[in-house]
Amino acid sequence: MEALKDKIIREGQAVGTGIVKVDGFLNHQIDVKFMDEIGKEFRRRFADIEVDKILTVEASGIGIACMTAPYFGYPPVVFAKKTTPSTMTEDFYGAEAKSFTKGTVSIIRVAKKYLHEGDRVLILDDFLAHGQAALAMTQLVQQAGAKVLGIGAVIEKGFQGGGQKLRQAGFRLESLAVIEKIDDGTIAFV
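== Xanthine phosphoribosyltransferase ==
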């Protein structure tokens, strides 16, 4: 998605050799009009599938999933929680996910009442680095007896191997921008 690459170059910032800061439009402040374009692009890339649910992980993926849902006919957006809130009193599916950015490991959880056997699920997230969050979400879907129809990432850091891991595992992955490397403050796309 050329518009996304342009926006990353214009408004993003490379930090070191592994971090792309896009908090001005994607994951701290959201450019809603641009997020609508991202939703349209995910629908274009996944034009051949119909889904029952869109799954993401809190918090950065929620806006992306909600802006994409209308283009799929408004399926529910389910988001995995990184902690167990006191309001989650029912059984849940859980999987371990490591956050590259935060350097933490969490058990992400989805209440069993929101993922069902036979559900057709599209997984969406803001970043794909090592693939840990995406793989954990696929585990939640599999625990429910549902099916992952695709995984979408707004930005894939191709040099960190998560995309390759997901593709090798047989998942359909669509990344809107794939970064090949970050070198001396410069972002290079595939």
